[in-house]
C-alpha cells in the first residue's frame, strides 16, 4: 500500500508574495509576467498555497497532470460550492449579500455539480455535437467570407481584433442563439463588460466611475436577462431550429426549466462562446504575423489549418483560470487539501508545461500530438469545443488562400483579466489577393 506523503512545512507550501500577487493581478495576465510566474511555480512549487491580502487563500494548480487530475474528479472538487472565478473577499461578500447567500450571480452549467449538472448539460449536449453543428458549416462560411472581405476592404492594414476577431465569433454565436444582427453591437458591449470587468478600457465601470464594480456586473447581467427573456418567450411561441429554441423549451424531470436557469443558459453560451474564440482567432493571427515560417508552413498545405488552430488554442489559452473547491479532505501531489479549500486551475500554465510540450514557450503549429487542455477536462469539458474549432478552421480556410503576407504594424496589447483574456488590439500590415 502506498504511504501517505508527509506534507511539507508551511514555509515550503506558501508561494512567495510577489508570485502570489501576480496571480491576482489582471495586468500580469496582459504580459509575460504571468508566464514567468507559472514557470517558476511549475519548477519550484507546482501546487502551492497563495495568500494574498483581500482574497481567501487558494491552492495554485500549475502542472498539466494535476489540472487534469482535479478536473476529472468532479465529485471531489466541486464547481458550485464557492466562486468559480477568482473573487476577492469583498466581492464575494457582496455577491452573497445580493443573492441571499449564494456565491454565484448566475446559475449556469459552470456553477453546477451533480446531480443537476449532467441533467442540464444533457439538454444541449446533442446540439453541440459535431454531427449537428456540421449543418451550420455553410452558414458559418458565409459569415467567415464576409469577415475576410471586411479585412480586405481595409486595404492592407488594420487592427485585426477590431475588424475580424471580435465580430466573427460574436456573429456566429448570435446566429445560433437567434439574435438579430442589428442587436449584435449591444451584445458585444455586454460580453466585453462582463469578461473585461477588470479592464478599464472595456468595462462599464470606466465609463461610470461612481458605480461599484459588482453593481456594474449585476447591471450587465440584468441587461442580458431582459434581452434573452424576450427571445425565450418568442421561441416558446414560435419554435425554430436554433439553440435558443432548445433552451427555451427545455424540461428537467418533466418540468419546464425555470426562467432564471434558461436565462443563465443563454448568458453562458453568449459569453463563453464569444470572447474565448475571439481571443484565440486573434492569437493565431498574432503568431502568424510574428512567424512568417509558420504562415508558409500552413499555406503550403491548407489541410494543416486544424493544427494551426490547435496550437493557437494552446498558445492563447483564453480561459486562464477556473476555481474548484474540495468536498472533503484529500491529498493531491503530496499536499493535504482540506475540505472547503479553494483551488485555482491555471490552464495557461498546464499548456506550457515542459513535462508535456517540447519547447512550450514557442509557437509551433506542426506540434503533434498537441495535448492542450484549454477546453478543460472532465464533466465540465467545454461544450462548445467542436464549434470553436470549426469556426476558426473555416475562417482561416477562407483567409489563408488569399493572405500573401502579414506583419505586425504596431504594438499588440492584451486585455487585463484573471479569467478570460487575449489580444484586445492587434495592428497588422498585410498583402491579400
Ligand atoms: C477557444 C474557445 C474556447 C475555449 C478555450 C473554451 C474554454 C472552456 C473551458 C476551460 C471550460 C470549462 C469550465 C470548467 O471546467 O469549469 C468551458 C466550458 C464551457 N464552454 Fe467553452 N471555450 C471555448 C469556446 C466555447 C464556445 C464557442 C462555446 C459555445 C458556443 C462554449 C461554451 C461553453 C459552455 C456552455 C461551457 C460549460 C460546460 C459545463 O460546465 O458543463 N465555449 N469552456
Keywords:
20 helices; binds protoporphyrin IX containing FE; globular; 433 residues; Cytochrome p450; 12% strand; disordered N terminus; alpha+beta
Regarding CATH, which class? Answer: Mainly Alpha
- The share of residues in extended strands comes to 5-15%
**Span between N and C termini?**
66 Å
CATH superfamily label: Cytochrome P450
* pLDDT < 50 stretches: 1-9, 205-212
Helical segment count: 20
Oligomeric state of the chains present here: single chain
Small-molecule binders: protoporphyrin IX containing FE
The biggest beta sheet is recorded as: 5 strands, mixed
Largest sheet: spatial strand order = 1-2-10-7-3
Give the overall shape: globular
Q: Give the helix level as a range of percent.
A: 40-55%
Structural class designation: alpha+beta
What integer value in Å does the Rg equal?
Answer: 21 Å
Amino acid at each position: 500500500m502506498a504511504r501517505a506523503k508527509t506534507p511539507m512545512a508551511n514555509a515550503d507550501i506558501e508561494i512567495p508574495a510577489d508570485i502570489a500577487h501576480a496571480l491576482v493581478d489582471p495586468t500580469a495576465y496582459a504580459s509575460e509576467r504571468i508566464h514567468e510566474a507559472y514557470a517558476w511555480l511549475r519548477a519550484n512549487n507546482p501546487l502551492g498555497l497563495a495568500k494574498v491580502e483581500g482574497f481567501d487563500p487558494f491552492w495554485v494548480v500549475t502542472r498539466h497532470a494535476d489540472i487534469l487530475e482535479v478536473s476529472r474528479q468532479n465529485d471531489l472538487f466541486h464547481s458550485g460550492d464557492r466562486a468559480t472565478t477568482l473573487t476577492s473577499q469583498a466581492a464575494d461578500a457582496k455577491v452573497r449579500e445580493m443573492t441571499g447567500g449564494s456565491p454565484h450571480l448566475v446559475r449556469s452549467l459552470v456553477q453546477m455539480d451533480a446531480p443537476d449538472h449532467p441533467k442540464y448539460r444533457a439538454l444541449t449536449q446533442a446540439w453541440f455535437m459535431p454531427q449537428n453543428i456540421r449543418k451550420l458549416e455553410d452558414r458559418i462560411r458565409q459569415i467567415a467570407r464576409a469577415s475576410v472581405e471586411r479585412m480586405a476592404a481595409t486595404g492592407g492594414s488594420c487592427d485585426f481584433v477590431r475588424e475580424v476577431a471580435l465580430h466573427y465569433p460574436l456573429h456566429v454565436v448570435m446566429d445560433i442563439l437567434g439574435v438579430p444582427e442589428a442587436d449584435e453591437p449591444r451584445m458585444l458591449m455586454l460580453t466585453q463588460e462582463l469578461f473585461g470587468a477588470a479592464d478599464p478600457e472595456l468595462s462599464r465601470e470606466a465609463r461610470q466611475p461612481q458605480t461599484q464594480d459588482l453593481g456594474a456586473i449585476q447591471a450587465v447581467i440584468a441587461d442580458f436577462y431582459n434581452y434573452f427573456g424576450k427571445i425565450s418567450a418568442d421561441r416558446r411561441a414560435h419554435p425554430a431550429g436554433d439553440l435558443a429554441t432548445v433552451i427555451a423549451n427545455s424540461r428537467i424531470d418533466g418540468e419546464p426549466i425555470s426562467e432564471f436557469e434558461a436565462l443563465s443558459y443563454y448568458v453562458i453560451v453568449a459569453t463563453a462562446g464569444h470572447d474565448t474564440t475571439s481571443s484565440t482567432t486573434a492569437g493565431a493571427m498574432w503568431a502568424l504575423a510574428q512567424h512568417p515560417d509558420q504562415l508558409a508552413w500552413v499555406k503550403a498545405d491548407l489541410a494543416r489549418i486544424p493544427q494551426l488552430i490547435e496550437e493557437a488554442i494552446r498558445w492563447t489559452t483564453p480561459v486562464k483560470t477556473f476555481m474548484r473547491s474540495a468536498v472533503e479532505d484529500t491529498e493531491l501531489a503530496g499536499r493535504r487539501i482540506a475540505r472547503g479549500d479553494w483551488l485555482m486551475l491555471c490552464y495557461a500554465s498546464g499548456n506550457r508545461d515542459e513535462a508535456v510540450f517540447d519547447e512550450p514557450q514557442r509557437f509551433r503549429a506542426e506540434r503533434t500530438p498537441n495535448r492542450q487542455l484549454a477546453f478543460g477536462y472532465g464533466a465540465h469539458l467545454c461544450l462548445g469545443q467542436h464549434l470553436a474549432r470549426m469556426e476558426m478552421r473555416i475562417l482561416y480556410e477562407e483567409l489563408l488562400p488569399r493572405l500573401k503576407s502579414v506583419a505586425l504594424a504596431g504594438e499588440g496589447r492584451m486585455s487585463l483579466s484573471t479569467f478570460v483574456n487575449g489580444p484586445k488590439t492587434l495592428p497588422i500590415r498585410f498583402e491579400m489577393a
